[in-house]
Amino acid sequence: MLIDTHCHLDAPELRPDRRAVIQAAGAAGVAAIVIPAVARFNFNAVRRLAHAVPGGAYALGIHPLYVGQSEDDDLRYLREELQRRLEDPRLVAIGEIGLDFFVPGLAEGRARERQEYFYQAQLDMAQELGLPVLLHVRRSQDVLLKYLRRRPMIGGIAHAFNGSAQQADMFIQQGFALGVGGAMTYARALQIRRLAAAVPLAHLVLETDAPDIPPAWLVPPDRRNTPAQVAAIARELAQLRAVTPEIVREETGATARRVLPRLGRLLA
Predict the structure, then answer these.
(1) Is the preceding omega at residue 152 within 30 degrees of 0, hence cis?
(2) What does pTM read for this prediction?
(3) pLDDT single digits (tens) 245-259
Protein backbone atom coordinates (compact mmCIF):
# COMPACT_ATOMS: atom_id res chain seq x y z
CA MET A 1 0.00 0.00 0.00
CA LEU A 2 1.48 3.33 -1.09
CA ILE A 3 1.09 5.93 1.65
CA ASP A 4 2.26 9.55 1.78
CA THR A 5 2.72 9.95 5.53
CA HIS A 6 3.43 13.68 5.42
CA CYS A 7 1.81 16.08 2.94
CA HIS A 8 0.72 19.68 3.53
CA LEU A 9 -2.17 19.33 1.13
CA ASP A 10 -3.80 22.50 2.45
CA ALA A 11 -0.80 24.68 1.46
CA PRO A 12 -1.48 27.73 -0.75
CA GLU A 13 0.84 26.36 -3.45
CA LEU A 14 -1.57 23.47 -4.02
CA ARG A 15 -4.78 25.46 -3.79
CA PRO A 16 -5.25 26.48 -7.46
CA ASP A 17 -5.55 22.88 -8.73
CA ARG A 18 -5.94 20.84 -5.55
CA ARG A 19 -8.60 18.58 -7.04
CA ALA A 20 -6.28 17.67 -9.93
CA VAL A 21 -3.41 17.11 -7.46
CA ILE A 22 -5.55 14.66 -5.48
CA GLN A 23 -6.68 12.86 -8.63
CA ALA A 24 -3.08 12.55 -9.83
CA ALA A 25 -2.07 11.01 -6.51
CA GLY A 26 -4.84 8.44 -6.80
CA ALA A 27 -3.82 7.65 -10.39
CA ALA A 28 -0.23 7.09 -9.15
CA GLY A 29 -1.50 4.49 -6.70
CA VAL A 30 -1.40 6.56 -3.51
CA ALA A 31 -3.87 4.90 -1.15
CA ALA A 32 -3.59 7.33 1.76
CA ILE A 33 -2.34 10.84 2.51
CA VAL A 34 -1.63 12.11 6.04
CA ILE A 35 -2.13 15.88 6.34
CA PRO A 36 -0.48 17.51 9.38
CA ALA A 37 -1.52 20.84 10.83
CA VAL A 38 1.03 23.52 11.67
CA ALA A 39 -0.91 25.89 13.97
CA ARG A 40 -4.35 26.67 15.30
CA PHE A 41 -5.32 28.59 12.17
CA ASN A 42 -5.35 25.47 9.97
CA PHE A 43 -6.79 22.83 12.31
CA ASN A 44 -10.20 22.97 10.62
CA ALA A 45 -8.70 23.12 7.13
CA VAL A 46 -6.68 19.91 7.46
CA ARG A 47 -9.60 18.10 9.09
CA ARG A 48 -12.05 19.07 6.36
CA LEU A 49 -9.54 18.24 3.64
CA ALA A 50 -8.79 14.82 5.11
CA HIS A 51 -12.49 14.02 4.98
CA ALA A 52 -12.66 15.11 1.34
CA VAL A 53 -9.74 12.96 0.12
CA PRO A 54 -9.97 9.20 -0.50
CA GLY A 55 -7.72 7.68 2.16
CA GLY A 56 -7.28 11.09 3.78
CA ALA A 57 -6.10 11.35 7.39
CA TYR A 58 -4.89 14.25 9.52
CA ALA A 59 -2.88 15.28 12.55
CA LEU A 60 -3.34 18.32 14.78
CA GLY A 61 -0.42 20.13 16.37
CA ILE A 62 1.67 23.28 16.56
CA HIS A 63 4.80 23.26 14.37
CA PRO A 64 8.02 24.60 15.94
CA LEU A 65 8.30 27.29 13.26
CA TYR A 66 4.86 28.56 14.30
CA VAL A 67 5.52 28.59 18.04
CA GLY A 68 6.61 32.24 17.84
CA GLN A 69 3.19 33.16 16.46
CA SER A 70 1.31 31.05 18.99
CA GLU A 71 -0.02 31.80 22.48
CA ASP A 72 -0.19 29.52 25.49
CA ASP A 73 -3.95 29.48 24.97
CA ASP A 74 -3.38 27.72 21.63
CA LEU A 75 -2.14 24.70 23.59
CA ARG A 76 -5.38 24.69 25.57
CA TYR A 77 -7.34 24.93 22.31
CA LEU A 78 -5.31 22.09 20.79
CA ARG A 79 -6.01 19.82 23.75
CA GLU A 80 -9.73 20.58 23.55
CA GLU A 81 -9.80 20.03 19.79
CA LEU A 82 -7.97 16.70 20.10
CA GLN A 83 -10.42 15.55 22.77
CA ARG A 84 -13.33 16.70 20.62
CA ARG A 85 -12.04 14.78 17.57
CA LEU A 86 -10.88 11.59 19.28
CA GLU A 87 -13.86 9.70 17.86
CA ASP A 88 -12.96 10.84 14.34
CA PRO A 89 -11.24 7.84 12.69
CA ARG A 90 -9.33 10.17 10.36
CA LEU A 91 -7.45 11.82 13.24
CA VAL A 92 -4.31 9.67 13.41
CA ALA A 93 -1.64 11.67 15.28
CA ILE A 94 -0.52 14.87 16.96
CA GLY A 95 1.59 16.88 14.57
CA GLU A 96 3.49 18.44 13.15
CA ILE A 97 5.40 19.09 16.36
CA GLY A 98 9.06 19.07 17.34
CA LEU A 99 12.12 21.32 17.46
CA ASP A 100 13.96 23.33 14.81
CA PHE A 101 17.49 24.48 15.66
CA PHE A 102 18.42 25.12 12.02
CA VAL A 103 16.66 28.45 11.46
CA PRO A 104 18.82 31.36 12.72
CA GLY A 105 17.66 32.72 16.06
CA LEU A 106 15.59 29.67 17.07
CA ALA A 107 18.33 27.58 18.69
CA GLU A 108 18.93 29.78 21.72
CA GLY A 109 17.35 32.09 24.24
CA ARG A 110 13.63 32.70 24.57
CA ALA A 111 12.81 31.23 21.14
CA ARG A 112 14.38 27.91 22.08
CA GLU A 113 12.69 27.87 25.47
CA ARG A 114 9.29 28.41 23.85
CA GLN A 115 9.92 25.63 21.35
CA GLU A 116 10.85 23.19 24.09
CA TYR A 117 7.85 24.25 26.18
CA PHE A 118 5.40 23.69 23.32
CA TYR A 119 7.07 20.41 22.39
CA GLN A 120 6.85 19.01 25.91
CA ALA A 121 3.24 20.14 26.30
CA GLN A 122 2.27 18.35 23.09
CA LEU A 123 4.14 15.19 24.07
CA ASP A 124 2.16 15.21 27.30
CA MET A 125 -1.06 15.42 25.26
CA ALA A 126 0.07 12.50 23.13
CA GLN A 127 0.77 10.44 26.24
CA GLU A 128 -2.52 11.40 27.85
CA LEU A 129 -4.66 10.74 24.76
CA GLY A 130 -2.80 7.71 23.44
CA LEU A 131 -1.85 9.29 20.12
CA PRO A 132 1.45 8.99 18.21
CA VAL A 133 3.27 12.11 17.01
CA LEU A 134 4.67 13.44 13.74
CA LEU A 135 8.05 14.95 14.63
CA HIS A 136 9.81 17.86 12.93
CA VAL A 137 13.51 17.04 13.33
CA ARG A 138 16.03 19.66 12.22
CA ARG A 139 19.40 19.76 14.02
CA SER A 140 17.50 18.83 17.18
CA GLN A 141 17.68 15.04 17.35
CA ASP A 142 19.34 14.72 20.75
CA VAL A 143 17.06 17.22 22.49
CA LEU A 144 13.96 15.63 20.97
CA LEU A 145 15.15 12.26 22.26
CA LYS A 146 15.86 13.67 25.72
CA TYR A 147 12.21 14.56 26.19
CA LEU A 148 10.93 11.36 24.56
CA ARG A 149 12.93 9.24 27.02
CA ARG A 150 11.10 10.89 29.91
CA ARG A 151 7.79 9.46 28.66
CA PRO A 152 6.65 5.90 27.92
CA MET A 153 6.59 4.82 24.31
CA ILE A 154 4.60 7.47 22.42
CA GLY A 155 5.86 6.47 18.97
CA GLY A 156 5.10 7.94 15.58
CA ILE A 157 7.21 9.23 12.72
CA ALA A 158 10.45 11.21 12.72
CA HIS A 159 9.65 13.24 9.62
CA ALA A 160 12.39 13.99 7.04
CA PHE A 161 14.97 12.29 9.20
CA ASN A 162 18.56 13.43 8.66
CA GLY A 163 20.50 12.29 11.69
CA SER A 164 23.24 9.78 12.39
CA ALA A 165 22.83 6.02 12.38
CA GLN A 166 23.10 6.03 16.17
CA GLN A 167 20.36 8.66 16.46
CA ALA A 168 18.22 6.69 14.02
CA ASP A 169 18.54 3.63 16.26
CA MET A 170 17.52 5.70 19.28
CA PHE A 171 14.35 6.96 17.59
CA ILE A 172 13.52 3.42 16.50
CA GLN A 173 13.98 2.24 20.10
CA GLN A 174 11.45 4.90 21.12
CA GLY A 175 8.89 3.39 18.73
CA PHE A 176 9.40 5.72 15.77
CA ALA A 177 9.64 5.09 12.06
CA LEU A 178 11.89 7.35 9.98
CA GLY A 179 10.33 9.35 7.15
CA VAL A 180 12.16 9.34 3.81
CA GLY A 181 11.21 11.54 0.89
CA GLY A 182 12.57 13.98 -1.64
CA ALA A 183 15.86 14.66 0.14
CA MET A 184 16.82 11.00 -0.30
CA THR A 185 16.67 11.34 -4.10
CA TYR A 186 19.72 13.62 -4.31
CA ALA A 187 23.06 11.90 -4.94
CA ARG A 188 24.82 14.36 -2.65
CA ALA A 189 22.58 13.43 0.32
CA LEU A 190 25.01 10.71 1.34
CA GLN A 191 23.97 10.34 4.99
CA ILE A 192 20.27 10.13 4.19
CA ARG A 193 20.88 7.64 1.39
CA ARG A 194 23.08 5.45 3.59
CA LEU A 195 20.36 5.32 6.23
CA ALA A 196 17.64 4.68 3.66
CA ALA A 197 19.63 1.75 2.31
CA ALA A 198 20.54 0.27 5.70
CA VAL A 199 17.57 0.78 8.04
CA PRO A 200 15.10 -2.12 7.77
CA LEU A 201 11.92 -1.26 5.88
CA ALA A 202 10.05 -2.17 9.06
CA HIS A 203 11.29 1.19 10.38
CA LEU A 204 10.89 3.39 7.26
CA VAL A 205 7.89 5.22 5.84
CA LEU A 206 7.48 7.22 2.65
CA GLU A 207 6.56 10.90 2.51
CA THR A 208 6.63 13.88 0.18
CA ASP A 209 6.27 16.89 2.53
CA ALA A 210 4.51 18.42 -0.50
CA PRO A 211 4.67 21.13 -1.63
CA ASP A 212 8.11 21.32 0.05
CA ILE A 213 11.29 19.21 -0.41
CA PRO A 214 10.88 18.45 -4.13
CA PRO A 215 12.70 15.34 -5.36
CA ALA A 216 15.71 15.64 -7.66
CA TRP A 217 13.78 15.07 -10.88
CA LEU A 218 11.54 18.12 -10.42
CA VAL A 219 13.62 20.75 -12.18
CA PRO A 220 13.16 24.56 -12.40
CA PRO A 221 11.03 26.44 -13.08
CA ASP A 222 8.35 23.94 -11.93
CA ARG A 223 9.72 22.68 -8.62
CA ARG A 224 6.34 22.18 -6.94
CA ASN A 225 6.12 18.88 -5.12
CA THR A 226 2.85 16.91 -4.96
CA PRO A 227 1.71 13.70 -3.22
CA ALA A 228 1.81 11.79 -6.53
CA GLN A 229 5.63 11.95 -6.28
CA VAL A 230 5.59 9.39 -3.47
CA ALA A 231 5.31 6.68 -6.14
CA ALA A 232 8.61 7.72 -7.74
CA ILE A 233 10.18 8.13 -4.28
CA ALA A 234 9.25 4.50 -3.62
CA ARG A 235 10.97 3.48 -6.84
CA GLU A 236 14.09 5.45 -5.89
CA LEU A 237 14.20 3.77 -2.50
CA ALA A 238 13.75 0.37 -4.15
CA GLN A 239 16.68 1.04 -6.46
CA LEU A 240 18.82 2.18 -3.55
CA ARG A 241 18.05 -1.03 -1.65
CA ALA A 242 18.16 -3.33 -4.72
CA VAL A 243 14.61 -4.60 -4.15
CA THR A 244 11.41 -4.26 -6.14
CA PRO A 245 9.14 -1.22 -5.78
CA GLU A 246 6.37 -3.61 -4.74
CA ILE A 247 8.40 -4.68 -1.70
CA VAL A 248 9.01 -1.05 -0.74
CA ARG A 249 5.33 -0.15 -1.10
CA GLU A 250 4.16 -3.17 0.86
CA GLU A 251 6.63 -2.93 3.72
CA THR A 252 6.66 0.85 4.19
CA GLY A 253 2.87 0.81 4.01
CA ALA A 254 2.79 -1.82 6.75
CA THR A 255 5.18 0.29 8.82
CA ALA A 256 2.98 3.37 8.44
CA ARG A 257 -0.08 1.43 9.56
CA ARG A 258 1.84 0.06 12.55
CA VAL A 259 3.24 3.35 13.88
CA LEU A 260 -0.04 5.17 13.15
CA PRO A 261 -2.51 2.55 14.42
CA ARG A 262 -5.59 4.65 13.71
CA LEU A 263 -4.47 4.93 10.08
CA GLY A 264 -4.20 1.16 9.99
CA ARG A 265 -7.78 0.82 11.19
CA LEU A 266 -8.95 3.45 8.72
CA LEU A 267 -7.42 1.54 5.81
CA ALA A 268 -8.38 -1.95 6.98
Answers:
(1) no
(2) 0.97
(3) 999 999 999 999 999
